[in-house]
Q: What sequence folds into this?
């Protein structure tokens, strides 16, 4: 296996960044060997990137189901387990059960969505990562892996398109 | 429908929505002496709230005597005295609103039970009671010596933050039922007497089993003078008031 | 866009740029440092106010609350039959304020109202701190607050679950769902800004932001997950927001009392919450704009104009629901409802009833139609203050004033507040105190959202007019 190194090419705007990604593909890199790190969310369509996977909607649905089951337990099972008669109303009241089911379904959905971010993005993560602070100042960085012997070619290509800087990516504490 | 408004048809209604224990208050006999109020306070360890709190409406009597009047002495027009206590409703509005099940319906005695040690003091039940029959322990009221010797050992003493109300002297009901059980006999009609019933000098209060059509209380409630307080609200109270005086005497 | 403009066009463009934040982009680095500067620059006046508020909170809130718990609810003005008083008024008031945050960050996001971008975080902070005060007020009103955990459903040896027939149990579920939901919704878009703060801080702040930003970098994956979650939240938290104040209204509407047992209470309370909430957002933004550094760039007349327009529309909605409720009660002729309406209009709190109508309806309708008044921050502040006072009066009339009248006239009695007054002042001071503390610790403006919006806005010439064009970037 040839030696490969990671580089961070930093661009000031979306247009040069998308040309750069095309150029990297021309130079033989696959989509998995490139990653875009940016200070604002740039859609995949703008950069010509493949659609990202995310489990968050599925987790949200699962959370809603979980919340619904908890609500169903509290509304339909708990009163039957320990029946207490109040106010001449039945043991399983219809309208109040709807309220309980709704609230717990929503809580389950929201909590699962939130925790889904943690799960999918592997938060919290405090290990050293490839990053430069300029990114949060609005730069768009392309993190790519290139074979060690061709690195000059890649660096020149990036600079030709207008990269502000092309540096070896060092994993540093954020 | 007009049949239901006929006073003679009241017994029919009683059978479908009856409870077990019931009370009849005869307003034509009540003299407003408040012996029932005092007896209830003594029997049930009701605290003395002091002058200031009582003036602000925080007196904790489980039964109160209501009266309305207009005019000045000697020309005073007034309503009959109306003793009001917890009506032990069959469809009690105080029960579904308690978030912790501190106000529940007793299946065995068909009265409304207030569970003191479960109450967390949200006071929704008191807001929802149309008869304003519930009182709240706003503070820890103390009994200076030697008044603490007067406490009834059969009844809990409530601490601050807890709601309370008339229980139809459930401790007396229990005591009589236990005695009857140990003597292997039925409870006789009139054997159970809550403190207010026992104390009334005018015999204006009658207590007993409303599911037994032969008991004193049932027969009194079949009278043409019988009404229920706030009947239109549908709370199915177990307390019947007799009033109307001589106009209805020939139907009694 | 054509490269050459004549002078009139240039004036037009310059004017548009000054008016609209979205057309006035600055480099992200500059905006970042403006927001960081705003957070880090603190004048001595801030600390004086902070110290005074801390003393007020210590005495009026914590000490008085301890006294209330030790002595019992008797030190409050509650009595038979007014079992609920200012504590519940404050609870409903603060929940109403908290709806503003969700309205701004979720509803305006769903409707793609671009002007929301600079102040969603300021509004969401109001939600979290407002709900904290609402929770405190609920705990204050309970007789045995040390047992309040019994409202939580958990298996126990007493074989008791909470009573879900009770609107208070629904309240418990709904308010907790809303509190957790809106705190999560506050935190999610905050993560990228915390990462920015981490990159620009040193010392204890850097450690603080590093821990809270969870290792965020801005990779495609991270943005995708974050944006998917924010979209779900924006849509999902709206029904929760509507359900919360509806359920709070059912505490009253489900009760068997004249004046309370009204089917209109659900939407009436929701619109009332938005009324006081949006007014409160306007007030907070006016204060932020004039006291925090650099905020005059982010918060412009256009934002206050938009908020003023919303306040006018919601005021009309509130008037519609109030009149609906009033008209049906007045027409019915039920003697208890009649006595209640008479008590509202001619009883000891009649001044509150009239003030409510003037502050909630008359003043907004007479002033907010004018764009000039709407866009002036301090005019909006005082109109908003009036609306908040009017809405507090509305809740006072609904709770203690209406509880004085019931089905047994022998028991009718007026309410005289006791220890509730210092406790109310304490919760207000605590709200401001928490907000001031947050303004030093959390970037007040979501810069990444502002930049996102600025990228989407361009100027386009259509015929002879230069107009603003917004792209759908999602």
A:
């Amino acid at each position: 296996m040839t030696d490969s190194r990671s580089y961070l090419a930093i661009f000031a705007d979306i247009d040069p960044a998308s040309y750069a990604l095309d150029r990297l593909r021309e130079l033989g890199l696959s989509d998995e060997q490139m990653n875009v790190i940016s200070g604002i969310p740039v859609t995949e369509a703008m950069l010509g990137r493949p659609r990202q996977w995310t489990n968050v909607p599925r987790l949200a649905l699962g959370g809603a189901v979980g919340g619904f089951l908890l609500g169903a337990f509290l509304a339909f099972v708990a009163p039957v387990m320990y029946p207490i008669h109040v106010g001449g109303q039945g043991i399983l009241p219809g309208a109040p059960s709807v309220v309980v089911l709704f609230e717990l379904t929503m809580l389950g959905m929201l909590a699962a969505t939130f925790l889904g971010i943690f799960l999918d993005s592997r938060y919290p993560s405090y290990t050293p990562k490839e990053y430069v602070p300029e990114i949060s100042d609005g730069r768009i960085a392309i993190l790519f892996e290139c074979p060690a012997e061709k690195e000059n070619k890649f660096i020149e290509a990036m600079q030709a398109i207008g990269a502000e800087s092309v540096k070896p990516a060092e994993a540093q504490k954020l | 429908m007009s049949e239901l408004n006929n006073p003679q048809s009241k017994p029919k209604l009683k059978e479908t929505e009856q409870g077990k224990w019931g009370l009849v208050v005869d307003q034509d006999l009540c003299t407003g002496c408040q012996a029932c109020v005092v007896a209830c306070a003594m029997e049930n360890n009701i605290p003395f709230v002091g002058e200031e709190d009582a003036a602000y409406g925080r007196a904790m009597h489980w039964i109160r005597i209501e009266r309305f009047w207009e005019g000045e002495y000697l020309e005073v027009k007034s309503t009959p005295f109306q003793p009001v206590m917890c009506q032990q409703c069959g469809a009690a509005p105080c029960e579904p609103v308690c978030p912790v099940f501190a106000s529940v319906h007793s299946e065995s005695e068909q009265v409304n039970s207030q569970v003191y040690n479960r109450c967390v003091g949200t006071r929704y039940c008191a807001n929802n009671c149309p008869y304003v029959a519930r009182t709240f322990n706003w503070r820890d009221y103390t009994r200076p010596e030697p008044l603490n010797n007067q406490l009834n050992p059969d009844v809990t003493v409530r601490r601050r933050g807890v709601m309370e109300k008339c229980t139809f002297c459930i401790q007396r009901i229990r005591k009589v039922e236990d005695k009857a059980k140990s003597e292997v006999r039925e409870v006789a009609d009139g054997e159970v007497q809550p403190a207010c019933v026992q104390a009334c000098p005018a015999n204006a209060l009658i207590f007993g089993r409303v599911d037994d059509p032969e008991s004193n209380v049932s027969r009194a409630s079949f009278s043409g003078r019988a009404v229920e307080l706030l009947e239109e609200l549908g709370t199915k109270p177990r307390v019947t008031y007799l009033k109307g005086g001589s106009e209805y005497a020939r139907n009694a | 866009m054509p490269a050459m403009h004549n002078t009139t066009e240039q004036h037009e463009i310059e004017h548009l740029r000054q008016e609209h934040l979205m057309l006035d982009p600055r480099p992200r680095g500059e905006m970042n440092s403006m927001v960081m500067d705003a957070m880090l620059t603190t004048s001595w006046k801030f600390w004086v106010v902070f110290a005074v508020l801390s003393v007020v909170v210590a005495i009026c809130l914590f000490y008085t609350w301890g006294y209330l718990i030790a002595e019992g609810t008797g030190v409050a003005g509650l009595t038979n039959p007014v079992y609920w008083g200012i504590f519940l008024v404050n609870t409903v008031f603060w929940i109403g304020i908290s709806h503003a945050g969700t309205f701004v960050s979720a509803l305006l996001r769903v409707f793609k109202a671009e002007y929301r971008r600079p102040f969603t975080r300021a509004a969401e902070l109001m939600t979290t701190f407002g709900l904290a005060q609402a929770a405190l007020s609920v705990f204050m009103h309970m007789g045995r607050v040390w047992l309040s955990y019994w409202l939580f459903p958990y298996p126990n040896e007493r074989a008791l679950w909470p009573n879900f027939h009770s609107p208070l149990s629904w309240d418990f579920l709904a308010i907790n769902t809303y509190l957790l939901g809106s705190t999560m919704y506050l935190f999610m878009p905050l993560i990228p800004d915390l990462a920015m703060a981490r990159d620009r801080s040193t010392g204890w702040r850097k450690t603080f932001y590093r821990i809270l930003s969870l290792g965020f970098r801005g990779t495609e994956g991270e943005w995708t997950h974050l944006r998917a979650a924010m979209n779900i939240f924006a849509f999902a938290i709206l029904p929760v927001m509507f359900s919360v104040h509806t359920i709070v209204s059912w505490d009253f509407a489900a009760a068997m009392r004249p004046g309370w047992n009204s089917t209109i209470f659900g939407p009436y309370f929701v619109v009332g919450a938005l009324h006081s909430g949006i007014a409160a957002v306007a007030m907070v933004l006016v204060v932020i704009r004039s006291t925090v550094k650099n905020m005059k760039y982010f918060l412009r007349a256009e934002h206050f104009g938009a908020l003023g327009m919303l306040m006018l529309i919601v005021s009309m909605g509130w008037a519609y629901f109030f009149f609906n409720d009033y008209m049906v009660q007045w027409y019915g002729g039920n003697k208890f409802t009649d006595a209640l309406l008479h008590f509202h209009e001619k009883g000891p709190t009649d001044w509150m009833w009239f003030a409510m109508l003037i502050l909630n309806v008359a003043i907004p309708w007479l002033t907010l139609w004018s764009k000039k008044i709407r866009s002036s921050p301090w005019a909006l502040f005082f109109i908003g203050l009036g609306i908040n006072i009017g809405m507090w009066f509305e809740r006072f009339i609904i709770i203690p004033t209406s509880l004085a009248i019931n089905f047994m006239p022998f028991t009718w009695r007026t309410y005289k507040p006791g220890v509730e007054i210092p406790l109310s002042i304490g919760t207000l001071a605590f709200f401001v105190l928490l907000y001031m503390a947050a303004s030093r610790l959390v970037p007040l403006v979501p810069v990444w959202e502002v930049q996102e919006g600025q990228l989407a806005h361009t100027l386009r010439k259509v015929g002879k007019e230069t107009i603003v064009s917004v792209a759908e970037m999602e």
